[in-house]
Amino acid sequence: MNVLFIGKWDIAGAYIADKLIREGNTACWMTSEKERVLWNKKFKGNIYRGIWRREDYMKILRANSIDTVVFLTGGLRECYEDAPEYESQMLELTNVLNVLRNYPLRCLLYLSSVELDYNEIHTPVLTDLAAGEMLCEAYHNAYGLPVLILRLGSVYGSFGLDHMGYTGRVLENMQKGKEIICQYSPEDYIDVVFGEDVAVAAESLLKLGKQGTYRIVTGHPLTMKEYMECLAKAAGCNLQVKWLKCKNTAPFEFFTEENQLKLDTGWIPYYLLKEKGLAKLKKAVSKQESDLRDEDKKEWLHHLKRLWQKPYVRPCVETILLFLLVTFFLRFTGDAFGLKYVDLRLMFVALVSCMHGITVGALAIVLACVSYAGSLIASQVDIGYLLYSVDTWIPFAVYAVTGASIGYIVDKKKDEKEALEDKYSLLVDKYDFLKLVHGETLEIKGDLQRQIITSKHSFGHAYEVAVELDSLKPELILLKVIGILENIMECDKAAVFLINSNNQHFARMKACSRSLKSTLPNSLNMDELEKIRESFRSSNIFVNTELLEGYPDYAAPIYYQEHIYGFIALYDVGTEKFTVYYQNLFRILTSLIEKNLAKALEYETVQHDNLCYPGTELLYPAVFEDRLRVMDEAGEDASHTYVLGKVYPTSGIDRDEVASRIAAVIRGSDCMGIDKDGDYAVILVNMTMEYLDRVKERFQRNGLVLEVGQ
C-alpha cells in the first residue's frame, strides 16, 4: 500500500505509520506541523509541510500513487476534561473528500473516538469529530468512497508526555505536583489501549479491505480510580485527585460486549495498562525527564555553538591564546642565547595577519605593541624616553607595517579566491543546467525519432490503416476492423455490433476477437446498457471509468446517413489505458472506420440494381459467391462463424415473394441470394448449430424449407 497521512501529529497515527512501513508499505504525510516527524526517524517517506489547497491534494496523491489515506484527528480526541479551544477539521476534511470522490482509492481511514458512544459527553470538539464521521459516511453512500472509521479508546505509548493525549497531560501534572481535577467519578470506566495494539488492528483491517465503523477497545476497562492509581505509580508520586462527578462514561458492559473487530480479525490486545502497559508508561516518564535534562544541556551547548560561529569570535580567541603562548616564551628570551636575536612579537603579528587577514591582524598589532611597551616599563625605561626617543618607535612601526602589509595581501588573495570560487560555482551551475537540458533534449529527440520511425501510431501506420480499410465491400471492412483495433489499441478483445434500424433495442454481433468468442453473447440488449446509449446520444465515445459490470471498457458508435448503424467495443483494455491519449486514438480509428464504411454502404446503395434482383435484397449469384468468399478469407483476422443454407419454397411462389419471406426471417447481419447452383441461399452470421432447429421452424412458418449441409 502507498499510504498518505493527512493532519497534525497523532499518537495513533504515529504507531500506525510505523507499523505500515515495517510491513513494507510506503508512507507520506501532509501536515501543518513545522518540525515534528510522524514516524520513526530511521524510516523514510515524503513529508509535505504547509497549508494546502484542494488541487494540491490531487497532485500529491498522483505523484506518490497513493491508494490509502489516513485522516488524523488527534487534536479532537480524548476530551476527558474541560472543553479546550480547538481548530475545526471540517474544511480540510471536506477538501480531502471532494478530491477523493473522483480518485481510485482503496480506503479512507478516519480516526475517531469511542467517547462518541458515551452519554452526555458531546462537547463542541467531539461534535466536530462526530460531524467528520457523518461526512465520511455521506460520501461513502453518495459516491461509493471506501471508508473505514476507527473509534479508539484512550491511546498511550512510549512517546513524550506532551504527545500522549489525556494520559500524558495527567502524568505531566502529577510530575509537577499539581492536583488532578477529574470530571468523572471514581467508579466511572475508561478503556486505555497501547498505540502498537491500535496499529496492529488498523493494519489488519486495511489488509482485509474492511469498511464501516469499528471500535478499538481492549475489553478490560479500568475504573477512573484504578486508572489514576496506575498513572501515579508510573509517575512515582502520591495520588491527588479531585472528583467533580459532573460527567459519566459508558457502563462496564459497553467495553466488554462482543467486539466486531475481534470477530473479523482475531485481534487481541497485548499491552494491558495494569500489566505490560505500566512499564511502557514508566519508560515514557523517564524519557521525559531525560529529555528535559538533555534539553537544558543542549540549550547551553546551542548558545555556545552559535556564539562560536559568529564572525571574528573564533579568530580573536585563537589570537589571544597564541598571544598568551608568545608572552610565556618571552620570559626565556633574555636567558636563551639563540632566542635573544629573535623577535617573537613580530613573528606573532606576521603569523596572525597571515592566518586571518588585516582585521584580526590589527588586534595582533595592538597586543604586540602593548607587550613591547610593558617589557620596556618592566625594564625601568622612563616613560618620557619611551615617548620622545625615536629609537623606541621603530618596533611599533615594524609591527604595524608588517601586520598591515601581510594582512592586506592576505585579504586581497582571499577576496580574489572567493570571487573565483563564486565564478566557478556559477559556471558549474550553468554546466549542470546545460547538461540537464542537453540530456532532456537528446531523450526527447530519441522519443520523437522512435515515434516517427517505429511507432505503430505514426503517420505511416495511419496511412496503412486507411489503405487497409479502403474497400467498397462493407462485409470486408467490418471483418478487418477487429485486427486493426487489436493492433493499434494493443488489446486482444474487440468486437463489432450492428443495430437494426427497425429494432434498436438489440445489437447483433458481426465479428469479434477469438478470445471473446466463447464469452461474448451474439446479441446484446441495449436497454441494459443505458450508459452507452447516453454517450451515443451525445455523439461521444463511452469509456467505462466507473468500471460498470457487463459494460465494455470502450465503445464508439458508427453512423450512416445520420442513423446509428452499429458500434465498436473493446474489452479488458486495462485502467492504465483510460487516458486522453488512448481515447483520442480510439476516436481517430472509429472515425476512419465510419468514413470508409459509409463510402462502401453508399456504393452498395448506388449499385443496388447491379447487386440485387430488382425490387428485392436477393443478391445475384456472382455477388453472393463473392460475399461468401469474403467471409471465408476474413476468418483469419476475426473470429466469426456462419452457416450456409439453401432455401426452398413449399409452394409455387415467385422470386419477389420468396425474397420478401426470407427477409422477414433473417437478421440484419445475414444476407440472401442465388447461389452458383441457381438455388435460393442464405448466409447466417454467428449462428450456432444448436439453434438450427429453431431457425428452421421460423423458415417453415413462412412457407420456406431451410436445408443446411453437414
What is the structure about, briefly put?
The protein has 710 residues and is α/β, with parallel strands linked by helices. It is 50% helix and 16% strand. The strands form 6 sheets. Strands 3-2-1-4-5-6-11 form a 7-stranded parallel beta sheet, sandwiched between helices. A 6-stranded antiparallel beta sheet has the order 16-15-14-19-18-17. A 4-stranded antiparallel beta sheet has the order 21-22-20-23, sandwiched between helices.
Describe this structure in words.
With 710 residues, the chain is of the alpha/beta class. 50% of the residues lie in helices and 16% in strands. The chain is built from 23 helices and 23 strands. It has a 7-stranded parallel β-sheet, with helices on both faces. Strands 16-15-14-19-18-17 form a 6-stranded antiparallel β-sheet. A 4-stranded antiparallel β-sheet has the order 21-22-20-23, sandwiched between helices. α3 links the parallel β4 (68-71) and β5 (107-113).
C-alpha end-to-end distance = 58 Å
Number of helices: 23
The structure class reads alpha/beta
Number of strands: 23
In what order do the strands lie side by side in the largest sheet? 3-2-1-4-5-6-11
What fraction of residues sit in β-strands? Answer: 15-25%
Given as residue ranges, the uncertain stretches (5+ residues, pLDDT < 50) are none
Helix proportion range: 40-55%
The average pLDDT is 82
Taking the sheet with the most strands, its summary is: 7 strands, parallel
Q: What is the molecular shape?
A: elongated
